Amino acid sequence: MTVPGYIRTAPRLKARRAAALPDRIARSAAAPAGESADEIRQWIGRRRAQASFAVDRIPFEALEDWSFAPETGNLAHRSGRFFTVEGLHAAIGEHPERTEWHQPVIVQSEVGILGILAREFDGVLHFLMQAKMEPGNPGLLQLSPTVQATYSNYTKVHKGVAVRYLEYFTDPSRGRVLADVLQSEHGAWFHRKRNRNMIVETSGPVPEHEDFRWLTLRQIHQLLRHDNTVNMDARSVLAALPVRGAPHALHSDTELLSWLALHRAAIPIRSERIPLAGVAGWTRGASSIDHDDDRYFRTVAVSVRASNREVGHWTQPLIEPRGQGVVAFVTRTFAGVPHVLARARAEGGSTEVELGPTVQCQPRSHAHLPVAERPPFLDLVTTAPPSRVRYSALHSEEGGRFLNSVSRYLVVAADEGDAPLDAPPGFCWVSRDQLAALTRYSHYVNVQARTLLLCLNSLDDYA
Amino acid sequence: MTVPGYIRTAPRLKARRAAALPDRIARSAAAPAGESADEIRQWIGRRRAQASFAVDRIPFEALEDWSFAPETGNLAHRSGRFFTVEGLHAAIGEHPERTEWHQPVIVQSEVGILGILAREFDGVLHFLMQAKMEPGNPGLLQLSPTVQATYSNYTKVHKGVAVRYLEYFTDPSRGRVLADVLQSEHGAWFHRKRNRNMIVETSGPVPEHEDFRWLTLRQIHQLLRHDNTVNMDARSVLAALPVRGAPHALHSDTELLSWLALHRAAIPIRSERIPLAGVAGWTRGASSIDHDDDRYFRTVAVSVRASNREVGHWTQPLIEPRGQGVVAFVTRTFAGVPHVLARARAEGGSTEVELGPTVQCQPRSHAHLPVAERPPFLDLVTTAPPSRVRYSALHSEEGGRFLNSVSRYLVVAADEGDAPLDAPPGFCWVSRDQLAALTRYSHYVNVQARTLLLCLNSLDDYA
């Protein structure tokens, strides 16, 4: 077509997919052993010892700058930023399957950045990981992304020091983006929360800092075998690394997306925020908000003192689950291709049904139910013989919002008797590579499934 | 790995992508001419004449089974189903860019099915299209999907007759799914509305009906050249047909997703439903709810009489825009690959920022603004010389919810002077095939951009 006045410019086009990247990632996962996991854990321990940290439970009235609003009872910071604890009227599904309940919920509509900086050393991709304190973490310090910045952080609402290395994630000219997607977080505790998960590769020199270390993917995979060592944000971001995908699976990609669309249509999430004071079935005490039957979680407050964080002292609310969780994928390998049994998961605070683990629950909160109503496959994964357990470790959720929120993460091999090819309603066999491909898009793979995906990827080293 | 008790089953895996499908779709788009567009339009005209339709504006008090709730002022059906007209406190973006306003909004959290049945005849894919009346459509009857069923429809809340051909979309064993995704609809008028867009191919015999016809994609493309002929639901569903994708583009897929993630993080949508009675700046009269400066849209009520629909008579509210819209993609071809200038679009009722057209506005509602604040590229697309206008037709939005909601849809070729390679803030050059690939996922390509994508695809016939 000839257009009058058309200036012929010939920009260079780019390949839509970076074909070499999965191989580079595989090389990093198979890199020669450098420092061992124990040595890296010792470094985290030294960082913990060199700074002085103290996290103490306090009554709500000792919170500084946080208070319950007189009209709504919502717990908010005086700046109006960070997050609030409000009420949720959760409603899921269509009549007659519709279920409804009330609960407290964390509202944080700001989108933060969880960013990991990558760089090649001697031809092998390394990732700049941080030993970072979060008040709710077991052990306080865990291996974290290079940058964990709320919008308040990087707009300096809390008047702290600048976030180190943030410029790599806010200025695209400083590197090459390997992955970048808004990912949902815990729909059971957050109202529509999501963070921007980024991996950026740089080729230039990067200033060093004693709280940060360059690790290969192999080292990170080895650290994942240890309890409460790699934090949730790091697990979520690393799950977005592209893998070489097997082109075949039990179901085509279209069939998988169709199965998800069916569940999204059948189980719409219609939850609404309500005042925290109006939440039925929960009671606010001097130092906690509790479920009247002691189930699910409580809302508490802590005082934090730290010498090496952006600010040295603060107080904040945290959500504390009542008991340890179980999060598991049941796996089978079909014609050489590893698959997981994913579940279509609707949570009160989520936007849409997402793909979740086979099992994701807090057994203590289900103990009062008749056996038939307990989560499917829970017994299978918690009583599997050791020969079936391909992965098992404890991991905690975001230590900036959750106190001692620990779950046992499991990958359990099954057979036709335990987990038939013809999956039960609400479940679908998804190849590991299909799951990985969906992490490029928002609201497809939930945060617990992303941790398990990273665990699955780590198993390749041990195959 | 050997697992005790493991039963070796060898299921056949499937190719994750249906490699042959884009070619089959291209064949349907290039099929030998059958009935002409004029002949098909005459058939629609005969269907219009043979049924007797009447749509009349009525005052709100003449609505049957619909009423304003005493406490909230929300307009709702007595069954609690279908949809409601409520208030929206829209809030978009972060301080200091945050903007807020009040407006009425349609709330419909049910997810309906928009389904098109496909079948090969003589080796060419055909699509079963319906001549369907919707009260808000200009001309009342338009070419529509095989099935347009709200959840209320197919659970029979309105006690009407069964939805014809619905079984192909609810029973997977009856065909093969070619596309299936929940797609968002107009974020300016709906609160988080989405429908399930499905294309299902069958190989068996399909009963005929006088309101339905099998058309090739070529015939549908030709009908798209005519004003107000192919309805919004059909356009949205057909945009999901997979195309052969050029493997190169100005930006890699990761760069494009990263650009979108940046805008999603910077412009969170924090809108909340409020009572319709509490909407500031709008006034409810006897037969309409109007903006106090006569901008944007009004809410009205109609009475409908029809002899060939699921029910013969009903009344309902509709949203009526104030004036014709302009929806346009500015296009350029780089190294042989067609690109569109997409805009990151945040709308009050949407879940996330989505990719939208270069221009999407109602000029009348912007006429009071200084020139510098009017939509970018609006002048370019409305004053382009005919040689630059590759596509131009009027299309209306969903006639079941919107009354005479007509926009001029345009595809306008541009050059470096009009639309530089270095896109202005908020805009990004996206290849047509990148846009098409994103229609597989929810909340990525908005409804107006999906119509334009189908229009772009239709241009291949004329290249």
Automatic annotation (TrEMBL), chains A, B:
Chain coiled-coil ranges: none
InterPro entries: EvaA-like (IPR005212), EvaA-like_sf (IPR038153)
Residues in the signal sequence: none
Domain dTDP-4-dehydro-6-deoxy-alpha-D-glucopyranose 2,3-dehydratase: 38-241, 254-456
The protein's name in its UniProt record: NDP-hexose 2,3-dehydratase family protein
Natural source organism: Streptomyces anandii
